Predict the structure of Leucine--tRNA ligase.
Amino acid sequence: MARYNVKETEARWQSRWAQDGCFEVEADPAKPKYYVLEMFPYPSGRIHMGHVRNYTLGDVVARYKTARGFNVLHPMGWDAFGLPAENAAIERGVHPHKWTHENIDAMREQLKGMGLSYDWRREVATCDPSYYRHEQKMFLDFVKAGLAYRKESWVNWDPVENTVLANEQVIDGKGWRSGAPVEKRKLNQWFLKITQYAEDLLGALDGLEGRWPDKVRLMQHNWIGRSEGARVRFQLVGRDDSLEVFTTRPDTLFGASFCAVSANHPLAAEMAEGNEELQAFIAECNRMGTSEADIETAEKRGYRTTLEVEHPFVPGKTLPVYVANFVLMEYGTGAIFGCPAHDQRDLDFARKYDLPVLPVVLPPETDPATVTVADEAYTGPGKIFNSDFLDGMDIEAAKSEVAGRLETIGRGERTTTWRLRDWGVSRQRYWGCPVPMIHCESCGVVPVPEDQLPVELPEDVEFDSPGNPLDRHPTWKHTACPSCGGEARRETDTFDTFFESSWYFARFTDAQGEIAFDRDAADYWLPVDQYIGGVEHAVLHLLYARFFTRALRDCGYLSIAEPFAGLVTQGMVCHETYRADGRWLYPDEITKTDGGDWVTVDGGKPVTVGRVEKMSKSKRNTVDPANIIGSYGADTARLFMLSDSPPERDLEWTEAGVDGAWRYINRVWREITECPTALPAAGTPKPAELSAEAETVYRACHKTILAVADSIERFRFNSAVAQVRELSNQIFSLAGTGAGEAWVLRFGFETLVRLMAPMTPHLCEELWRQLGHDSMLATAAWPEADASLAENDTVTIAIQVNGKLRATIEMAKDSSKDAMIEQALEQPNVIKLLEGKSPRKVIAVPNKIVNVVA
Ligand code: ANZ
Ligand code: ZN
């Protein structure tokens, strides 16, 4: 038999699957459905190893579930709007549309070369008007439902790129690409009202327990950030109005020594009038990064205004009012009271500005007379003191007491605050979905009528100067007002590209339709049963999609609230790093000398091997999947991706590991196609009698069918690979040429091929054919296991030497004591410890243990 021709075989099966439409599915209420989805890629140009891992995981699930009789939806598409396309246009003069579509074409070919079981008829590219027209309609529906609105707000503004940046795109106060100090600007932006669903988005996380990683649920929990507390209204001295603050610690009110407002608080603006010093301080605060991390690490600074407030419960006591850099306008009320003894930021601030520090929570077992506050605030439990009517209460009781009294005197109330903010979706960029709105001098902001959708991006744009090309376009933005017919101007902002990924999973259920998706199709297929992707989306994409699904439900598009019933977040693909001459080297730039040292390929310079790190271009520790698939084939890449670690853990890509997968595939090919035993024809009934050896292998097959299924169901693909390998060892070492052996060999080969099919589908289809079958494994059923045969007929025996565990062995159940002792004494560890002497005593307990006394 010829050696395994990977290239030819893989290409042939890929085109057979496509020809036969093996992965094309339709909604069919008579069949149970299963929707498996991998996070769709940004079309950057080439697939990387992270993609290979992600899509292999999904493909195993899809093929396995198909074999288990499910109607499996497994689609793929492109998250095609975004900045890299615009950068390519700026740097290389190629139009974003052209660049994106060329990348899509190249990557589609690469994915096809991996043998992934996608229903390609459902492919979508989010930059196509046939896709984004639907989200324009959704947006208009959101506006109608009060779920989208426009408001003026403070945003991160990159003065070089002339665009808003998301908080994540501001690094150390500078724009991530321009490096220019980011400013805060007040701009009119569109927002989606994600906060309306805060309670539900938080509460529903409980229902995902066990189906979503705890880590992701926790991150969302913290991001949504529910805080229970109180609002307190402090009367401003000498004025009619009051200053409202939010606190989670009303119990510490008697320890308050100052109030502070955000630099963007209306009171700050008022006090800054005619006060250049304060104006300068506010401007400085606005130059600071807006992320919580920035604020946490910055030195706490403030400006003392001439304002003072009255303490609500201590007659005559007043507190100064500061403008402070650590108070966020977007949280709570944008103002705080500071209690330095029990809050670290307040303490740092109080020390700097010499404000009183009065402890009001007494730690357990502490004498009030000895309490002092050094440079650490006390945030633990205790009893309230120094606090009038609260004295002696514990913290919770005091919180409640203060809130109640504030309510009575009309100076505050209990309240819940959320860290979650509404989602600002306006971007001043070209390569995104146009916001379907029109501005009219007389009518204000007018929605684009639905019959005029989509608002398409103009093709003829210039990238020769910074800023948004839509804004500079000579004609595009000029239009007639849909309401009065007068001259009007189109909105030139586009949507945040997270908009597109918030609903693509629904579009896949009916991807070619004239409407966003057919309700019946969506009802049948959704939710996604298994979603797989990177943990970097733990909050952003996964939270936006959960919100969007709820919003779509409330606008009548969908019936469900949770889009992803199951979630797996895969770990990174990592690789060693290499350096020589102070620069990073790609793995193919180095080679090993005969002496075993790494040197550069050209020049033979010594190479330092560094840590194993996430593959990245900056460290040059990347391996191009195209090269691996080109030389070893897709099945090898797939098998290696599955073998090494469970999906959620990082995986180290090694040459040796790939080589091992490659050798295994070839071994399976050889053992089956070059088997010297003449196999009975396919479908020959099982002989009545089997030899003990044949029976053992036969039972092992049944056991492994169950074990592999269980491993795949639990996402333990590495265990599934190990189980398959173990079984193949048993099958390949079955000697003898009797009818029973020959029959079991065929049974074993067929079982093996069917179990491996979800992982290495090309090899398995080919072997299935070689074994005399016309059917295709891609659509075949999972092998049936006889549970009674799969029962454990072996036991694990512990081998101890002088009471210490030295080995374990697998033996047939109820083996004799003699057999147990004989095997025990053959264990290398036991031989070593006996140092050539015979044991003083050996005790065997059947099915359990052998103890050797040396
Ligand atoms: C007084 C106080 C005393 C506070 C004390 C804490 C400890 P979480 O738990 O994150 O919700 N705060 C309120 N609004 C703020 C804003 N806009 N910017 C910065 N800080 C703000 O935090 C709530 C606490 O953070 C609030 O409770 C307030 O300080 C502060 F011993 O009020 B606290
Ligand atoms: Zn008008």
Summary: The first strand starts at residue 33 and ends at 38. Residues 11 and 231 are 67 Å apart (CA to CA).
